[in-house]
């Protein structure tokens, strides 16, 4: 009986090992053989051509899109730029908690250079430990945005930078009093004189200096950029496969396209939580147009794997989970015609959201591609000393 039991246990172990090998072989073949029977080497051959000869992405009718484009390298003029008086002033203001009512919170409290200029929190935490309702957007490439905030409520970076300063749950500073506060510091008067030709400090001038500094915050080139520029070994087979899926079956380029992987538009992807705990009506709060209920801006995917948690409410910290949401299509939470007729504010999920039928292997390949789009974090040093004399 003992010998039989031992042999039985041995066969069970061998059977389990065989099963694992079969799974691994199946996974390996998935990368040898992409969708529709295209071999991975064929895909590599396709995407090693000039980008104008690449397979066209899957784009819905009526959608305006732009082809991928690589980021430029760091210009040597960057270092000269960072020494310009208005940029120097803006950087000091950005990191200075004196801009807040409590003297404890700076712009960098939520836009941390150590975390790709976001904060790694679901939602921001500000004055008196109050929390907001939305995730902190990274400031990387903010100079390329056409509108700001998740709901696009302002179109100027100079106006955007003022909002958190005055918000009661962020920096809680009266914008009419801040200039007087800074004017008491001789060093700031000298800095404003160097930047704008006058020691007179205004809230508008503060906004201009902050915006000037924020425009210098850009993503570094990623492996994806180097691939676009002909360094084809920069992407693994899995990442090339993921990029192909991103462009085709996963339909991502309907919204995430161009140099910064965003269409700069607003969409309802089905996460409004209407009449529930996390309800957020998005752009509708600004426009009061029922067609805008639940719409939020399409964030750039540049450095996306450094800026988790994701979505407007920061509720998702696992990229596979995020991709599963898109895979579902989210139309199950969209208003039916009779619901919309009875309640004009009942959210309708964007028709661009469709069930994708992606396999687990395909989802992981897309996640791998997103890693290639993410560059090494650039961690700007904070000022060693802030103006106080």
Automatic annotation (TrEMBL):
Molecular-function GO terms, alphabetical: peroxidase activity
Cellular compartment(s): Cell envelope
A single Pfam family it belongs to is CCP_MauG
Alphabetized, the UniProt keywords read: Heme, Iron, Metal-binding, Oxidoreductase, Peroxidase, Signal
List, alphabetically, the PROSITE patterns matched. Answer: CYTC (PS51007)
Entry superkingdom: Bacteria
Q: What is its main location?
A: other
Secretion signal span: 1-29
Write down what this protein is called.
Cytochrome c peroxidase
Native organism is Olivibacter ginsenosidimutans
């Amino acid at each position: 009986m003992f010998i039989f039991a031992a042999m039985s246990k041995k066969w069970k172990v061998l059977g389990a090992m065989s099963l694992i090998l079969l799974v691994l072989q199946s996974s390996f073949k998935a990368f040898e053989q992409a969708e529709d029977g295209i071999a991975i080497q064929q895909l590599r051959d396709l995407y090693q051509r000039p980008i104008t000869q690449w397979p066209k992405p899957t784009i819905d009718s009526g959608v305006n899109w732009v082809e991928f484009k690589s980021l430029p390298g760091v210009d040597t003029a960057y270092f000269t730029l960072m020494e310009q008086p208005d940029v120097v002033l803006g950087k000091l203001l950005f990191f200075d908690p004196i801009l807040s009512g409590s003297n404890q919170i700076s712009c960098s409290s939520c836009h941390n250079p150590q975390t790709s200029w976001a904060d790694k929190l679901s939602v921001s935490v500000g004055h008196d430990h109050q929390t907001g309702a939305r995730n902190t957007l990274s400031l990387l490439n903010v100079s390329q945005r056409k509108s700001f905030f998740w709901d696009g409520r302002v179109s100027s970076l100079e106006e955007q930078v003022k909002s958190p300063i005055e918000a009661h749950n962020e920096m809680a500073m009266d914008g009419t009093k801040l200039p007087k506060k800074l004017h008491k510091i001789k060093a700031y008067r000298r800095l404003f004189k160097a930047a704008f030709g006058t020691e007179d400090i205004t809230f508008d001038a503060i906004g201009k200096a902050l915006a000037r500094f924020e425009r210098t915050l850009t993503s570094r080139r990623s492996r994806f950029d180097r691939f676009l520029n002909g360094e084809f070994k920069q992407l693994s087979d899995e990442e090339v496969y993921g990029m192909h899926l991103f462009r085709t079956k996963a339909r991502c380029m309907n919204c995430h396209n161009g140099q910064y992987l965003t269409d700069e538009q607003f969409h309802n992807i089905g996460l409004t939580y209407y009449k529930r705990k996390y309800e957020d009506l998005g752009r509708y709060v600004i426009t009061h147009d029922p067609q805008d209920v639940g719409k939020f801006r399409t964030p750039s995917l540049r450095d996306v794997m450094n800026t988790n948690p994701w979505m407007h409410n920061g509720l998702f910290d696992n990229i596979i989970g995020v991709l599963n949401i898109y895979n579902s299509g989210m139309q199950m939470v969209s208003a039916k015609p009779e619901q919309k007729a009875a309640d004009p504010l009942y959210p309708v999920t964007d028709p661009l959201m469709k069930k994708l039928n992606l396999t687990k292997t395909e989802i992981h390949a897309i996640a791998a591609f997103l890693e290639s789009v993410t560059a090494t974090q650039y961690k700007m040093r904070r000022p060693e000393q802030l103006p106080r004399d």
